[in-house]
Protein 1
Amino acid sequence: MSNKLEKLELENRKNDIAWESLFETHHILDEINDEGVYKISAKAINEKREARLMTKFDHSAQLPKIFKQNGLSIQPDSRGTYVIGRFDSYEKLPKEDNYKKASLDIQAFPFPENIQTINPKNIRSEATALLCAYNAGIISDLLEQEVRFTVAGRMSTGKFSYSINSSKQKNSCQINVDNSQCEIDGGFEGDDIFAIVEAKNSSVDNFLIRQLFYPYKLWINKTSKKVIPIFLSYFDNIFSFYIYEFENDENYNSIKLVRQKRYYIGSNDIELQEVIDICETIKIKLENQEIQFPQADIFGRIVDILFQIHSNNIFSSKDIAITYGFHPRQGQYYSSAAMYLGLIERVHINKKWGYSLTKLGAKVVRQNNRERNLIFVQLILENKVFNKALDVYMQQKGKLDRADVIDIMKSSDIKLIKDSEETVSRRANTVRGWINWILRLTQPSQEELPW
């Protein structure tokens, strides 16, 4: 396991232990049950562990165990104090509808040839993702006017109050903020708008509303222009933007998704006919009865996991869960899916079980984008269910229902005997998600579809 991952796992364990000790020492849960909230100082937190490390939870999966067990989260109300309560602090991102043709709409933008200091094919941070999107003209297209990159970094929120909903009951709590700290990944100003962007260089299921709400509260009082909160997820070479608004400036949970749009830098150079040819000519392999049929909808995560394993040498299911901020069981689903394709294998190193790349996986990560994606297409379509699913999609002119996939699965040699109907349905969604990923590779050529 890499030093980075070991450190991250160790940090999580230390946070759990420190918070459990704080809860016991200060009777935090008793006061929350009696009063609704508990206010704690950074000084008190520092007695157990550095507050900076104990209070940053960008996704709900990152919360300490004792918070998860009791439906709690934490909000800063000044530079030195925090409020703990049963707050509805996180916003779920809408699940991509992977199964409709409309979901393939991704706008491609060229990158300026004269820029050499950043590379849109080598994005490893939120800052680089934003800079690439901005310099490619994506941000201006998204906001429908020319904008300038004007603000980034940490700043003081000033003073304001807001209500936040309870995660358990239908009531709310009032929080008074006095010069807390907030951070903006990117602020973009146009003629009559100012957009604040929170960026994540990964695929996530939810995000901390505060990362948009605190900067929003700050800037609506500092500019006469309309302030637009935006969440960006950069993943699998796709920039996914979610444009929000707060319907009530005094209510943290009044966040509402207004629009979402996806972009790609460069051009996809795989033609639809190439995919069709692979589907029709590839030799179908026998189903591997030793590995469960995949249940991992987002194929891009499998791609990313390969590179994570490549750079870290060993990578466990728990590491996968930590990296993407989801339940360990999902980490197992995605590692199993990569094994199903023959890209990774289980290994035992230094008394720990984890995963390493197979010879095929090592070959794949060395390829350029086009060759790598063609190999992925081949690996997917040499499996009977996926091959037949793409064939049905083509025959039905872009229609592939869950029921269609379930019929294909039941007529194939895959192990579904012990699966419940719900599990079978989830595995069908995986098939549809992977087919969608393949077709997205050919997206600029959609006008060539045979219907």
Note: The first helix runs from residue 3 to 26.
Protein 2
Amino acid sequence: MSAGADIVRQAWQAKTALLAFNIPYLPMLQPVVAAVAAQNAVALISVARLEWLKFESGSMRAVRDEFERWQRPSAGQAALPGAVWLHLDHIPVLDEDHLRVDYLPLLREAVVLGYRSLMLDGSRLPLAENIQATRAAVELAHAAGLPLEAELGAVMGHEAGPLPPYEELFASGQGFTDVAEAAEFVRATGCDWLSVAVGNIHGAISGVKKDQVKVQARLNLERISQITQATGVPLVLHGGSGIQQADVRAAITRGIAKINIGTEIRQAYEVTLRAASASPRAAGSVPVAQAAVYERTTWLIRDFFGLAGSRPMFVLD
């Protein structure tokens, strides 16, 4: 791979992190890109399979087309100069409804569409099956010159049933990534980045729960250090919304190089859109919701994660 082909590894080597913003609704993409540009930052624009099946992102092609629309100038519209990278997030082998997914064709489609990094999530499988599936995905990605993210451990929150109380979950270490298994997994698969479970949880994606404020999670920082030392690859934190600021900033110094953000900006969009749609000026509801996404994205980059001005640190192709 060229110097700019793996910006997550660049972040890891610099002991900083990149934010990956998930796009469940297409109108969210423009304000995210605009905020990244305004903050002179670098970020990933991500879409997961569940976001075109259970939300309104449409498809990975629709997200790619919207992404390109804001990267290139057109009649009456200037391109936004943010350093953004298109990432295919969470293509599961076994999905949140426990259905098997034909994952390799989806990864191939992303390569053809121009996505610059891919993720395969085999975390619901037994270790040997996860290794087998991930190795096949790594071979596909590397043949195209792309990095491949994998997942080991159970980052909970997308399941249909209720979660155990968070403090019980954290104290027990239920679903946490095992250090020895992580070392074996990375060695056997050749994956480039590893998503880990260390106290982080996903926001709910269905029913009334999707509007609830997430539990303020914390992280097992020692476990992060141990996994970093055992694997020697950049680590990824899914469920990045709602984690205590001190924990997430400490995690970056210990090997977390990519942090996925979904709930924070999705709820900003949904709540504002509903409130604006209930007003007499409902026709302007989407721009109002986009403004809320811009403000929240700006706050996350600049104030919560302290990543404003980070663009000069990266070599970008």
Note: The longest helix spans residues 285-304.
